[in-house]
Amino acid sequence: MNKAIKIIFLIFFSTKNLLSLEMICNFEEVYQNGDIQQGHLLIKENKIRYQYNDNNLYTILRTQGDFFLIENIYPDMFMKIDQNTEALIGIEMIINDYPKLKSEYKINKVSIKPEMKLDDNFLKKITILSDQMNMNIYFPACDKTSIQDRYFFYSPFFSFKKND
């Protein structure tokens, strides 16, 4: 391999590592009926953790190419999710495209529309529209920070608190 090609590979892989997204965001889901749920979104490389604060709800992990659901009240039990994942896949696509987002992502009959913050500090909100669900997910605060890999394990499952 000649020297120019080696330099291009080095620049590409070095830049990709520098641009890898690693952050923790607070989220607030607002449903069409007025219900509100809050939690945390953790992003690291190809992994996502979408965790509700309510103990009666759950945490969704995207790791090893699959989605897993862990009920917050029973953290030792997990279930692989392979149906009705359109909204989750859309959120993952937005994260992977960040900061160069499309105005709309469509998966089957689900429309997902991201909106950036003016300061370009990740997302302001994501709107999800479908026959089954209409909601907005707001991201009032995001911190770019290092996240331990253990928070993306489903077995064993590690609880996460914002100040860990």
Which labels suit this protein?
ten-stranded antiparallel sheet, alpha+beta, 41% strand, 164 residues, globular, outer membrane lipoprotein receptor (LolB), chain A, 10 strands
Q: How would a textbook summarize the main sheet?
A: 10 strands, antiparallel
Topology pattern, helix = H, strand = E: HEEEEEEHEEEE
Number of helices: 2
Helical amount: 10-25%
Quickly give the structural class.
alpha+beta
Shape: globular
**Alpha-carbon Rg, integer:** 17 Å
Q: Could you name the ranges where pLDDT drops below 50 across 5 or more consecutive residues?
A: 2-19
**Terminal-residue CA separation:** 46 Å
Mean pLDDT: 87
| CATH fold category name | outer membrane lipoprotein receptor (LolB), chain A
Question: Would you kindly provide a brief summary of this structure?
Answer:
With 164 residues, this protein is α+β, with helices and mostly antiparallel strands. The protein is 18% helix and 41% strand.
What does this structure look like?
The chain is of the alpha+beta class. It has one domain: Lipoprotein localisation LolA/LolB/LppX (outer membrane lipoprotein receptor (LolB), chain A, Clam), CATH 2.50.20. The chain has two helices and ten strands; from the N terminus they run αββββββαββββ. The chain has helices at residues 3-19, 86-97; strands spanning 22-31, 36-44, 47-52, 58-63, 66-71, 79-81, 105-107, 110-116, 123-129, 134-144. A ten-stranded antiparallel sheet has the order 6-5-4-3-2-1-10-9-8-7, covered by helices on one side. The longest helix has 17 residues, at 3-19. The model is unreliable at 2-19 (pLDDT under 50).
